Amino acid sequence: MGARTKARRRAVDLLFEAESRGLNAGDLARDRVVTPVTPAPLNEYTVTAVTGVVAHWNDINDALTTYSQGWTLDRMPDVDRAILRLGTWEILFSDDVPDQVAVSEAVVLATELSTDESPKFVNGLLGRIVEVKPTLV
C-alpha cells in the first residue's frame, strides 16, 4: 500500500471519528499531529486532505447532496460520507490528484471499509462529480 493510499485511509478515519464524536475534523487532525495516538505520526497529506475537506465543507456537502439522486447525506453510511467528502475534495480542490485516481482510491476505500453496495455508489456519485466538475469550480 502506497504512502498516499495510507494517508487517504487515515484521513477517512479522522473524518469519520470527528463526525462521530461531534468534533471539527481539522482541529482533530492538528491535535493528532501534536499528540499522536499511534506510533506512526500523521502523514502530511492526511493533514492537508482533512483540513482541505473542512475548508470546503459546505461546497463538498452541497455537491454530494445535489448529485446523489435520492440520497441525503444523513441517509448515507457514515464511512461513505467520509470517503465521499475526501474524494470530492480531491476531485474539486486538489491540484495534484488526477480525477480518476481520486475516484479509484475512494472505491478501494469503500470496498475495504463499507457495505457491499458502497463501492458502486461511491463510484457512481464521484463519477458524476467528475462529469460536472467544470460547472462547480
UniProtKB/TrEMBL annotation:
Protein name per its UniProtKB record: Transcription antitermination protein NusB
One cellular component (GO) term of this entry: cytosol
Entry keyword set: RNA-binding, Transcription, Transcription antitermination, Transcription regulation
Biological processes annotated in GO: DNA-templated transcription termination; transcription antitermination
Family note: Belongs to the NusB family.
Function recorded in the entry: Involved in transcription antitermination. Required for transcription of ribosomal RNA (rRNA) genes. Binds specifically to the boxA antiterminator sequence of the ribosomal RNA (rrn) operons.
InterPro entries: NusB-like_sf (IPR035926), NusB_fam (IPR011605), NusB_RsmB_TIM44 (IPR006027)
Annotated NusB/RsmB/TIM44 domain residues: 6-130
Coiled coil location: none
Name of the gene: nusB
Organism domain of life: Bacteria
PANTHER family assigned to the protein according to its UniProt record, in alphabetical order: ANTITERMINATION NUSB DOMAIN-CONTAINING PROTEIN (PTHR11078:SF3), N UTILIZATION SUBSTANCE PROTEIN B-RELATED (PTHR11078)
GO molecular function terms noted in the UniProt entry: RNA binding
